[in-house]
Structures are given as structure tokens and as C-alpha cells.
Amino acid sequence: MPVEDSRLSGFYKLSVTERRAMIANLAKLSDDEVAALANHGELDELAADRMIENVIGTMSLPVGVATNFVVDDKPYIIPFCVEESSIVAAASNMAKRCLKKGGFKTNNDEPVMIGQIQVLGLENIEEASEAVLTAKYELMAMCNSLPSTMIKLGGGCKDIIVRSIDTISGKMLVVHLLVDTRDAMGANAVNTMAELVSGKIEEITNGRVHLRILSNLATHRLAKVEATFTPEELSDDGTRENGSKIITGILEAHHFAMADPYRATTHNKGIMNAISAIALACGQDWRAIEAGCHAWAAVENGAYTSMTRWERDDEGNLVGSIETPMAVGIVGGASKVHPVARANLSILGVESAQELAGIMAAAGIAQNLGAMRALATNGIQAGHMKLHARNMAVSAGAIGDEIEQVANIVNSQSGPVTQQLVKETLDSIRD
Ligand code: NAD
Q1: By the 8 A CB rule, do 81 and 281 touch?
Q2: Torsion-angle region of residue 66: left (phi > 0), alpha (psi -120 to 50) or beta?
Q3: What is the pTM (predicted TM-score) of this model?
Q4: Is residue 84 flagged as an active site residue?
Q5: What's the rounded Cα separation, in Å, for the pair 234 and 241?
Q6: What is the 251 CA–ligand 1 centroid distance (Å)?
Q7: Model pLDDT, residue 388
Q8: Which is the closest atom of ligand 1 to the Cα of 188?
Q9: pLDDT score of 286 more than 90
Q10: Is the distance from the beta carbon of residue 331 to the nearest atom of ligand 1 less than 6 Å?
């Protein structure tokens, strides 16, 4: 169920139980969904044993919600599952700074995945390619003959293209099935179709079909999102002058990432802090998403570069955008099996995979801006270490109330927060 407002003033000051109760109320969660979130996110062992092999237990990570997001005029509270401090706070903070211009706007592609079929042993690649294209409608009809809800809902194989590639093993023909997977990530449907038509492809090409598997470089399934941030919103003090200076710093940071793969890797890791955390929270195949996003950042431009684009518009605002593969599903995979993933999807209240894709890409923009803004102003460590102090206190052996006490003391000091300082502070409060 979509929430009416994502600006939850003072939310961070509540206890975990109070926050959960508030989100349950806003998102109209069921008792089972609330219980799944409250139960340390654990799967029961039977469910876990069905998901992977050789199960010996389960492992928890925190789920936090990012606030202030408005995507296509709808407010969203966004669950993140991640172990790193300051990510959720930074995303929430940046999402607030584009509200004057209406938040994030999406223009996503249809949910079309690629199934690859590798054809070897061909005497004439051009003739084989022609033969596949001539039989295209027959092959598509074979794919779409599968009994499937996805196809009934308007999905299925929509086109077939052919590519010839040079490899160490010689020239190969690669057939791409373009499959609309609707609200599923679609790996299983695409792989089934690729296997189904491989015999026919061998017959018409006189070749040998080898691999048959989807590509995670989902270039026909790009999430395309943009947001505009005014100088006043980006400033420290509400002034246009200060905000404009910060925008200049952000653009310089972005140009560094565009030009240098060493910087781009860390810049993009920051974007994935949001995208992967939401993917994990919502039971998505985050490895597939990671692979697709990073590959596209290189393939689109011929060299690895920033996944985002940042510009100053004619009015002096900062405009951020992203176009990246986003193979997500709200049916299939773990999205419907893991009880916490189900609860998190309910918090989002999404009705389609495309809606989820847009939210994830929007959060990627916000996260990217948060890191660049911090780096271009005070440096990243001040905010990060402040939030990290509690983890450091736990590492130093603090328990119960000691954790907050130690974190507050070290954060109130002006110098850097080191593990030694944390240990000394813990020792001093125990004396
Ligand atoms: P899935 O196999 O569960 O398929 C989705 C099912 O839901 C289909 O049977 C479909 O007909 C049905 N369906 C019902 N309503 C639908 C709707 N509105 N839209 C679309 N389908 C609808 O799930 P999947 O998405 O095919 O596969 C995802 C899983 O595959 C993930 O767990 C992923 O990790 C795994 N996987 C990934 C790769 C990879 O390379 N990325 C490879 C193999 C498997």
C-alpha cells in the first residue's frame, strides 16, 4: 500500500519497535509482515533449506528505511538491507533536497531481458544469421507457446536479433531472444525459452548450439531516472550562493569520476550502496543487478565511467540522471518466498517491476549525490565516523548502554574517532 507522505519527521529518534509500529501503520502491513520484520529477519530453517544447498543456518542484517523519497509524484518509504552505517541517512537527506522540483521522474524501458544462444561450427555465419532471421516468427511462436502467466499478461518473446562475434575459438553466431518478462526478473522464463528453441536453431543453421542462458547486461531494460536539485536545497545555509558553490564542487567530483576508472569504481560503489541494499531488502538477485550496472557503465561509453550524469541547468540547478539496467521482479525468485522481502515490498507498495526499478535507480541518484556532496564539502569521514562510532564501540567490547555512551563521548570530541580512542573511552567509563 503506498504511503501518503514519506517525510517522517523525527523518525530517527524513535526506538526500533516504535519505528516498526509507525511503518506498519503507514504501509498497512499485515501481522505476519510485522512479525517477519520483528523476528530478526530470519527465515525459518525449513524455508532456508529449500532455498539453497547444505544449509546450516541463517544470518541477519539490519533493515532500515530511507525517507523523503517522491518518485513520479508518489511518496515512498524505501527499505534498505545493509551493514554499512550512514547510507540510509545520506539517501534520506538527499531525497529531501529535490522536492522543490517535484522529486524523481522516471522514464523506464519496458521489462525486456535478453536470452543468449551461442551457435558454433558454422561454415557461413552470414547465411546462418539470415536463416535465423527468416525463421524469427516461427521461433518467437515456439517461445510464446509455453504455458505461462507472464505470457498471458502480455509478456513473452517480442523479437530476435543476431550477432556475429570474433573469439579465440573463432567466429560465433549469437542469437538474442528479446523477452518481455513483465513483473518477473525473468531468468527462468528466458532460460527456458533459450533451451526450447535451440534444437530448431541447430536445424536451420546446421550449427551446434552450445550455451543457452540470459544476459545480465539487460540493455533493453534500462531504468531511466532524473531529478533536479536547487542551489538553495543543496546549500548548508539555505543561500543560493553557498548552494551554487557546492554544485560546482559536486560537478568537479563528477567530472573526476567520468574521466578516471579508479574514481568511477568508488563513485559507482556509492550508487550501488542504495541499489544493492534495496535489492537485498526486496529479495532481488543483487549479483545480477550489480553485474549489469557495472558492465553497462563500461559498455555504453567504451570505457568504465560514472553510472550517473550530473549537469547544471540554465537556472543554475543541479540535474542528476541515471540510465542503467535494472532486472528486478516483484514475482518469482526470493521476492515472494522470503518473509522479510515480502514485508519490504509491502512497505514500498509497488505494483510492477518497473516501479521498483525506478525507485532503486532514484535511490542510486540520491546516494551518489550524498557521497559527492560530502566529499566536495567536509569530506566523507565526519558524518561516516559519527554513525560508525557505535560499531567501533561494539568492536571494543562495549555492551548494552555502554555502546551509546561511548559513541556519544567520542563523537563530542573534536579530533578523529580512532579505535584506540574508543577503547580508552570504554575503559574510562568502566573505571
Ligand atoms: P520465476 O522462475 O519464479 O518466474 C516467475 C513466474 O511468475 C513465472 O512462472 C511467471 O509466469 C509467473 N508470473 C506470475 N505473475 C507474473 C507477472 N505479473 N509478471 C511476470 N511473471 C508472472 O522467477 P524469475 O524471475 O524467472 O527468476 C528469478 C530467479 O532466477 C532469481 O532467483 C535469480 O537469482 C535466478 N537466476 C538468475 C540467473 C542470472 O544469471 N541472473 C540465472 C538463473 C537463475
Answers
A1: yes
A2: beta
A3: 0.91
A4: yes
A5: 10
A6: 39
A7: 80
A8: 26
A9: yes
A10: yes
Query: What does the H/E/C string look like for 172-217?
Result: EEEEEEEEECCCECCHHHHHHHHHHCHHHHHHHHCCEEEEEEEECC
Smallest CA-to-CA distance from 190 within 46, 332, 324, 8 is with: 332
Helix 381-395 × helix 87-96 angle, to 10°: 150
CA distance 196 to 185: 19
Contact 323, 362 (CB under 8 A): no
Q: Could you tell me which residues are beta bridge partners of residue 176? A: 116, 161
The rounded radius of gyration (Å) of the Cα atoms in the chain is 24
390 — pLDDT class (breaks 50, 70, 90): confident
CA separation for the pair 334, 285 (Å, rounded): 8
> 80-112, pLDDT tens digit by residue?
999 999 999 999 999 999 999 999 999 999 999
Q: Is 148 near ligand 1, meaning CB less than 6 Å away?
A: yes
- Give the closest residue (by CA) to ligand 1 atom 7: 332
State how far the Cα of 117 lies from the Cα of 212, in Å rounded to an integer. Answer: 5
**Type of residue found at 241:** E
Q: Is 47 exposed, middle or buried (0-12, 13-18, 19+ CB in 10 A)?
A: middle
| Complete DSSP assignment for 293-304 | HHHHHHHTTTS-
Question: pLDDT digit string (tens) for 100-154?
Answer: 999 999 999 999 999 999 999 999 999 999 999 999 999 999 999 999 999 999 9
Confidence band of 381 (pLDDT split at 50, 70, 90): low
| For residue 44, pLDDT beyond 80 | yes
Only one residue has cell 550455451, namely 211
Kindly tell me the number of DSSP H helices and DSSP E strands found in the chain: 18, 10
In the predicted model, what is the mean pLDDT of residues 202-229? 98
Q: What are the cell numbers at 142?
A: 515456439
Listing from the earlier edge strand, what are the strands of the sheet with 170-180? 156-167, 170-180, 112-120, 208-215
Q: Using the mean position of ligand 1's atoms as its centre, give its distance from the Cα of residue 189 in Å.
A: 6
The stretches of 324-380 forming alpha helices (DSSP H) are 339-348, 353-376
